[in-house]
Each structure stands twice: as C-alpha cells, then as structure tokens.
Amino acid sequence: MKKNNRASLSDAQKFSLVRREAIYTGLALVGLIIFWLAAGFGTSSLDVKIFHLPLWAVLGSVGVWLVAILISALLSKKLFTDMDLGGEDNGK
Question: FRET pair for 7, CA 20 to 30 Å: which of 1, 31, 85, 92?
C-alpha cells in the first residue's frame, strides 16, 4: 500500500491509478504466459527429472504457480494502491 493522500484523490486520479494497475496486471499475464510456454514447451527436449517427473511438467505446472504468486506479491507490494472508490455502503 503506497503512502499518499488517498482521501483527496479526484475521480480522474483514481481512474488513472486503476487503469495503470490494470495495464500492469495485463502485462504480468502476458509475461506469465511467455514463462509457461518457455518452461513447458521449451524444456520438453531435456531429459531432466524432478521426483520422477519430467522437468517440463514440473515447470509448466508448479513453476507457473510459483511465478504467478511472485508476480502477484510484487504487484501488490510495489504497484497497487489502496483507495476508497467512494461507493455507498448502506450498512451491508
């Protein structure tokens, strides 16, 4: 959570932040897809085994999850901003 004056942000500034976060999230998805292709298909010719599983299977499944968790943690720690979007709560 970035430390800035979130209460005084205008709607245009909030929209700009949300748009920036969406763009970086989309870029992270593209990066994850590229990693999946490289890790799964790129290592398929290697004869490396991890716990009796081929390397491509481990990297193409568990590896992708670990990279996705790392990317999500980096995005939430460095990029995303906690802000009030201003909706009515109505006690719910």
Answer: 92
**Residue 73 counted as domain residue:** yes
Range of the domain at 24: 11-78
Number of structural domains, the chain? 1
pLDDT by position in tens, the chain (length 92): 445 555 677 888 888 888 999 999 999 999 999 999 999 888 888 899 999 999 999 999 999 999 999 999 999 999 888 877 666 655 55
Amino acid letter at 49?
A: K
Residue 20 lies in a domain: yes
Other Cβ atoms within 10 Å of 63 Cβ, number: 19
